[in-house]
Amino acid sequence: MAPLVLPHVRVGEGPHRVIAVHGWFADRGAYAGVLDALDRTAFSYVFPDLRGYGELRDTAGEFTTSEAAADLLALADSLGWERFSLVGHSMGGKVIQRVLTVAPERVRRMVGIAPVPAGALQFNEETRDLFAHADERPDNRRAIIDITTGNRLPAAWLDGMVRESARCSAPKAFRAWFGSWADEDFHDQVEGAELPVRVVVGAHDPELNAEAMRATWLAWYPRAELVELPCAGHYPADETPLELVRAMEDFLRADE
Predict the structure, then answer these.
(1) Per-residue pLDDT reduced to its tens digit, 101-134
(2) For site-directed labelling of 134, which of 13, 63, 183, 187 has its Cα 20 to 30 A away?
(3) Is domain 8-255 annotated with CATH 3.40.50.1820?
(4) Which residues pair with 198 in a beta bridge?
(5) For the residues of 3-33, what is the DSSP string, one character each?
(6) Rounded CA gap, 224 and 192, in Å?
(7) Over 90: is that where the pLDDT of 1 sits?
(8) Is 86 in contact with 251 (CB distance < 8 Å)?
(9) Residue 11, strand partner residues
């Protein structure tokens, strides 16, 4: 399927250009909690919706990281952005690595927020069933969000996250995206990439945590570094937005 120009919101007019990609449970609104704290003088941020989400909820697609990478590059072309940094949360962390495999010369820096690695994830049967049927079972979505934030956040917040994820994503796309971000393995295509990388994780995330990052991202990217946020789980943009902005922007501006 041909690339399309993803609908997006732009924040800031700074010289350092950044594309921030959302995860599995949200559209571009995943970053709403950090928008007011962003440095709009140093950075130009663009927050797009991926196919199957937000304004593209009913748009056809393959719903794969490869397709999303092509769409993101088409977006960058439409903006006139030859080089840019990439930010990706969870599933979006895998998507931005696909962009790196296609156009490494265009990626300046990369920030993964509780990011899925470029390798395939290993699930036991019970966990795979939980994820695989989350498109049709709201209770599965709630359980996943609760588990990945350490079973410690308010019930009202969990319920709101479930409602928002159902509102902003198409079930067919949601189901297909799981197969892409969970099972694809292209780590051999990124291993050894020399660009600066920062991985930001929450201490209360039981799976995509510091240990998992050391075994994957930090092992594959020679210039990768790790930041752990002590009061966050899998959703730092909601749980600790100011700490997340600091972790992102301190790293992104380091070469200026």
Answers:
(1) 999 999 999 999 999 999 999 999 999 999 999 9
(2) 187
(3) yes
(4) 111, 225
(5) -----EEEE---SEEEEEE--TT-SGGGGGG
(6) 10
(7) no
(8) no
(9) 45
Domains in the chain: boundaries = 8-255
Whole-number Å distance between alpha carbons of 174 and 63: 8
> Do 112 and 234 contact (CB within 8 A), yes or no?
no
Q: What is the pTM of this model?
A: 0.97
Q: Which phi and psi (to 5°) does residue 34 adopt?
A: -105, -10
pLDDT at site 149: 98
Q: What is the pLDDT of residues 35-50, one digit of tens each?
A: 999 999 999 999 999 9
225: enclosing H helix or E strand: strand 224-229
Return all residues near 122 (Cβ < 8 A) that are at least 6 apart: none
CA–CA distance, 103 with 165 (Å, rounded to integer): 30
**Distance (Å, rounded) from C-alpha 73 to C-alpha 181?**
19
Select from 67, 65, 160 the least CA-distant residue to 117: 65
